[in-house]
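The following record pairs a protein chain with its ligand, 6-phosphogluconic acid.
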Amino acid sequence: MSTPRLVHTTDFVAEAAQLILDSARAALAGRGLFRLALSGGNTPRPVYAKVAELGRDLPWDKIQITFGDERCVPPEDEKSNYRMAKLSLLDAVPIPEGNVFRMKGEIAPAAAATQYEHQLAAVAARMGEERYVHDLLLLGIGDDGHTASLFPGTTALHETTRNVIENYVPQLDTNRITFTYPLINAARHVVFLVGNPKKLPVVEGILAPDSPYPAAGVKPVNGDVTWLL
Ligand code: 6PG
């Protein structure tokens, strides 16, 4: 695990979008495929719109989209991370439907997690990988130091085998579907999209030695981490 790279930016949206586009072009040049995990919440929305604006010329048929986590709601629900990505990015680029791996928030969480696990495993098998390897995996953080839907004190933090898991979050009294540390830490590049100066104290807490925050568990085995602040 290399030392995390901290990038302080004065134009978060433009720099985040450029980071994604640069990663895409490098992966496509190197491997003819770009596997990108989208993060949810509000921060990435304008970034995805900028990627759609600047990246329309990308070979979207060679780009695969996954989701780091999803709320257990239907895809048309305003809480859906898929809906947010669809409206800001996916509807604005010519990506084949089969290239977008949607977590089915509308079905039983355990079934949705299992289905997603199988979908990723099928690609990993074709690629000769032990587990699916993202070229770029985007993450956000919450004020409690959670990332994806790996919230403090929840069961998913302890998963060491599965890649995708259902996770009951008592703090929100809700179920989520989330990537686990094994899948996140198999990525080539992880980028935390922070963008909000109010989150800097929790970022410092995450980067501190022996941090208790869930986001501190993101340590790609053969990859690197960038914090866009
Ligand atoms: C989610 C996320 C979550 C998010 C952080 C930050 O489903 O909410 O994946 O991990 O990235 O909570 O959210 P904001 O960008 O809205 O602050």
